[in-house]
């Protein structure tokens, strides 16, 4: 469950609009490093995320894709959500593996793709099936795409029997999470059990050429999550007790986004704009906007810089830790999930791409085109108060262990893409 | 009921998008697509980058969706 949110995220993104049409075989490898500062004297948080994809054309109309991704996570986390979470910081590490097999069928103006993904880690199992279809409308200036996926996920949890939410104990790293066949959960009655979570995700996308130098994409996203969505490790301080986090079993989410590209021929560059609105049945409302600029430098270098801002409102049942601790009742649901708190962030960064075209002689004797990418971002994050700050003598600065410095995280990505 | 509403909403939106898209039929002729074909004009031209970005965002933010990225999974508690 250390990586549970990741799996939820996978459900959200894996069914996105079909990528750009691939006219040839390709291979891509990359590694991302995410390093975040954290208080509590237990060090920061580091996530290493390698990915590898191989796409092969099987004849003129069929494409086979195989991909693998992993997350190696180590660092500090807080066990108890309370006004002073820093004092409960501990170290942990975990690894998640994910494999995907995809099959695509391509016509002159349309394509349809199917995929199956399996993800596994110590305390979370994910099996996802999805499909997407797209068609270029007459004139080939409009592409309409529809995608859908269903995830059958399992979350390892403490077997709390008939205990009420206020009495439920949290899972610990020492609790066993048994599996059979690597991808099926196996309960250990009285100790741990696997709880189900289903995720249905749908997205429809319209991509439109507006002029010879401008195009637009609009995407409508919807998702229904049903099942166990709490972090089984997380506890919330309520008075003198610290029961396991308890949040609703159902969450319906939707978002609407728009992206715009404008090419600037005289400068051999392009500007990019991206905006999104998000809403869900837990009361989280969010918006973000991003501005980017791409500039070719000579024939082989491409530099892109970008800036993004994001802000969200808290879930209805989220409270600042002080209020959970001091009010006579926490309410039906209680959580210490920062992603359900009021939060805002900003990201600034750049990406440098070295492009090598093979011409008559393939690059490294194999590739028609080879690209090397280096990307670096900095993340600045600001946790806001969900409740009345004037009546909160301890404030909200220590209820999460995330650092309070100007730059909260650094993200680096190295990638190599070859078309052959 | 919620599922039905979401399904109806998505279907309605798709229909609206599809019907509205017809206005772009003559927007750009084939011979004028040199710049549109450039990799900087292709949405999600780098799937790994898009996947990695969504990966981080969905583990730092309560929102989700809206981008055509593939992949997923992260370990950010």
Descriptive labels:
heterodimer; A: 420 residues; mainly beta; 16-stranded antiparallel beta barrel; two-stranded parallel sheet; 2 helices; 20 strands; 4% helix; 56% strand; disordered N terminus; B: 77 residues; mainly alpha; 0% strand; elongated; disordered C terminus
Name the poorly predicted regions of chain A.
1-23
Q: What is the C-alpha radius of gyration of chain A, as a whole number of Å? A: 23 Å
Report the C-alpha radius of gyration of chain B, rounded. 17 Å
Instruction: Tell me the distance between the termini of chain B.
Output: 33 Å
What is the gist of this entry?
With 420 residues, chain A is mainly beta.
Summarize the structure in words.
- The complex is a heterodimer of chains A (420) and B (77).
- Helix content of chain A is 4%, strand content 56%.
- Chain A has 420 residues and is mainly beta.
- In chain A, the strands form three sheets. Chain A has a 16-stranded antiparallel beta barrel with strand order 1-2-3-5-6-7-8-11-12-14-15-16-17-18-19-20.
- The two termini of chain A are 39 Å apart.
- Chain B has 77 residues and is mainly alpha-helical.
- Classes of the chains: A mainly beta (420), B mainly alpha (77).
- At the A-B interface, helix 1, strand 1, strand 2, strand 3 and strand 5 of A face helix 1 and helix 2 of B.
């Amino acid at each position: 469950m250390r990586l549970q949110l990741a799996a939820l995220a996978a459900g959200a993104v894996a069914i996105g609009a079909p990528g750009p049409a691939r006219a040839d075989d390709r291979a891509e490898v990359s590694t991302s490093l995410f390093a975040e500062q954290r208080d509590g004297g237990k060090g920061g948080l580091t996530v290493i995320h390698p990915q590898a994809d191989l796409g092969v054309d099987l004849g003129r109309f069929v494409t086979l894709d195989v991909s693998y991704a992993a997350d190696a996570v180590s660092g500090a986390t807080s066990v108890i959500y309370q006004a002073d979470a820093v004092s409960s910081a501990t170290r942990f590490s975990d690894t998640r593996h994910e494999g995907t097999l995809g099959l695509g069928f391509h016509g002159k103006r349309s394509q349809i793709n199917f995929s199956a993904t399996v993800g596994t880690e110590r305390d979370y199992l994910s099996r996802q099936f999805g499909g997407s279809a797209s068609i270029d409308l007459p004139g080939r200036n409009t592409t309409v795409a529809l995608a859908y996926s269903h995830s059958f996920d399992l979350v390892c949890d403490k077997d709390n029997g008939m205990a009420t939410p206020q009495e439920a104990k949290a899972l610990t790293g020492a609790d066993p999470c048994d599996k059979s066949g690597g991808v099926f959960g196996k309960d250990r009655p009285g100790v741990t059990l696997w709880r189900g979570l289903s995720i249905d995700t749908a997205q429809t996308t319209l991509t439109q050429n507006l002029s010879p130098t401008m195009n637009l994409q609009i995407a409508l996203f919807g998702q229904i999550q049903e099942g166990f969505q709490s972090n089984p490790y997380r506890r919330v301080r309520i008075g003198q007790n610290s029961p396991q986090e308890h949040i609703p079993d159902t969450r319906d989410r939707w978002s609407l986004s728009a992206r715009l590209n404008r090419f600037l021929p005289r400068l051999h560059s392009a500007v990019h704009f991206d905006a999104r609105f998000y809403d869900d049945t837990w009361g989280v409302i969010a918006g973000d906007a991003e501005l980017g600029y791409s500039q070719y430098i000579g024939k082989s270098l491409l530099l892109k810089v970008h800036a993004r801002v994001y802000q969200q409102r808290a879930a209805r049942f989220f409270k600042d830790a002080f209020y959970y601790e001091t009010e006579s009742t926490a309410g039906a649901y209680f959580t210490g999930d920062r992603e359900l708190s009021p939060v805002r962030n900003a990201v600034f960064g750049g990406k440098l791409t070295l492009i090598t075209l093979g011409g008559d002689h393939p690059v490294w004797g194999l590739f028609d085109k080879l690209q090397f990418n280096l990307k670096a971002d900095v993340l600045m994050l600001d946790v806001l108060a969900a409740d009345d700050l004037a009546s909160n003598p301890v404030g909200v600065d220590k209820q999460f262990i995330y650092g309070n410095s100007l730059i909260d995280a650094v993200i680096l990505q190295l990638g190599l893409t070859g078309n052959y | 009921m919620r599922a039905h509403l979401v399904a109806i909403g998505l279907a309605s939106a798709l229909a609206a998008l599809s019907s509205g898209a017809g206005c772009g039929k003559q927007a750009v002729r084939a011979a004028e697509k040199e710049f549109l074909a450039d990799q900087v004009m292709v949405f999600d031209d780098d799937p790994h980058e898009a996947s990695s970005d969504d990966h981080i965002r969905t583990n730092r933010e309560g929102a989700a969706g809206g981008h055509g990225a593939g992949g997923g999974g992260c370990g950010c508690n």
